[in-house]
Write a structure and sequence with these properties.
Length: 281
């Protein structure tokens, strides 16, 4: 049976408990709206937060993978640009050698052709030396250690690598073969030999460029994949921790109404002991 007491107001206690629960829910909803996340700390949901944090680490690591792939791709592209220049120079040199192989050519004309030939030869050496990106040269076999093979990061663990083999396009190297830093076409015999040697060099350079092109394409393809993978991981993290703001907005309105009703209920419950005063009049 209900009883009247000025010491214990059960109705007020229950109203206060309900109001406190509403305020707690309201605070949580406001936090979700402010942060845009339903799980913003380990306190909200420890397991989900831990999973999301691990995936954030993976996504962040993939940024380093993308940078490595982009840097490697730029290095290969610089090497390819220099290689194409070498190929064009070789074509011109073959023309000079063919012209100089003509037995009816006078010495002055032969000397002029030889000067052009040596100038083109030296341009090849300069192009190969300058084919450097970020301190890496994939074409210069004369540098300490020879040509460089790049190894780009392929995953977030650092254990998997995507490699592209360098090609030795330096004069006298494995690709240019008979074409050395001292090659000339000053005589008909030398010119005739250079026709064959440069023809072989043109074919070898084309093969080398084909390999570099394949490597560059592989890097670009893997870079695209890493970008898609990172987007998928980020979307997965969002599915785990992001709040549905439309739902939270509707919930906020309901909780604000509930809070106002709770305050009114507590006010009414607090007025109940005052009715006892009427018994003493």
């Amino acid at each position: 049976m209900p009883y009247n007491s000025v010491n214990t107001n059960v109705g007020a206690m229950i109203a206060l408990q309900n109001l406190n629960a509403t305020n707690a829910d309201l605070a949580m909803t406001q936090t979700r709206i402010n942060t845009g996340k339903k799980v913003s700390s380990a306190k909200d949901n420890g397991a989900i937060w831990a999973i999301a944090q691990n995936q954030r680490a993976t996504s962040g690591s993939l940024d380093a993978v993308k940078e490595s792939l982009q840097r490697s791709q730029s290095t290969v592209d610089v090497a390819m640009a220099a290689g194409e220049t070498v190929s064009d120079l070789l074509v011109q040199m073959k023309q000079k050698a063919l012209a100089a192989s003509d037995a009816s050519l006078d010495q002055a004309s032969r000397d002029a052709l030889n000067q052009d030939f040596m100038s083109l030869r030296d341009q090849i050496a300069k192009a190969v030396k300058n084919a450097t990106f970020n301190g890496v040269n994939m074409l210069d076999g004369t540098q300490p250690g020879g040509v460089v093979t790049i190894a780009a990061l392929a995953d977030d663990t650092g254990n998997s690598k995507l490699t592209v083999q360098g090609e030795d396009l330096s004069l006298g190297g494995s690709v240019l073969g008979a074409l050395t830093a001292t090659s000339t076409i000053g005589t008909q015999t030398n010119a005739s030999l250079m026709i064959t040697g440069i023809g072989n060099a043109i074919a070898s350079v084309s093969t080398a460029l084909s390999k570099l092109g394949t490597g560059s394409k592989s890097l670009a393809s893997h870079l695209t994949f890493i970008g898609k993978l990172q987007d998928s991981i980020d979307a997965g993290i969002g599915n785990l921790v992001d709040a549905d703001l439309a739902k939270e907005s509707a919930k906020l309105t309901a909780l604000q109404t509930k809070q106002q009703l709770g305050v009114q209920a507590l006010t009414i419950a607090n007025q109940t002991p005052q009715t006892i005063m009427a018994l003493f009049k």
